[in-house]
Amino acid sequence: MGREIDEAWIDEAIERYQRIEARLAEFDRVVKDVTVTVSSSDGLVEVVVAADGTVRDVRIRGQARSNDELSRAVREAVTAAADAAAWARQKLHAEAFGAYQPLA
């Protein structure tokens, strides 16, 4: 005994797939355009990072007393930038795909 093919269900599944693909393409574009700016705790270093993780700019905003101080500030700001990019990416993903239920 064969199964009947529900063509309406197939058409709906194809349309859903196409909508998700279009939304994913838009998400990929948006994460490159959205930027977050973070600073080291002492304000010495500022990093601008895109939601896709690309560092767009690094600015030294003050005078370091030593190379070690500057290195620490750069590490701190870069670490904060990575965290901020992940946060922005998650927020954008939730906005773009929050209405879609995962497949079980």
From TrEMBL:
Transmembrane segments: none annotated. It holds the Pfam family YbaB_DNA_bd. It comes from the Bacteria. Coiled coil: none annotated. GO terms for molecular function: DNA binding. This is YbaB/EbfC DNA-binding family protein. It comes from Planosporangium flavigriseum.
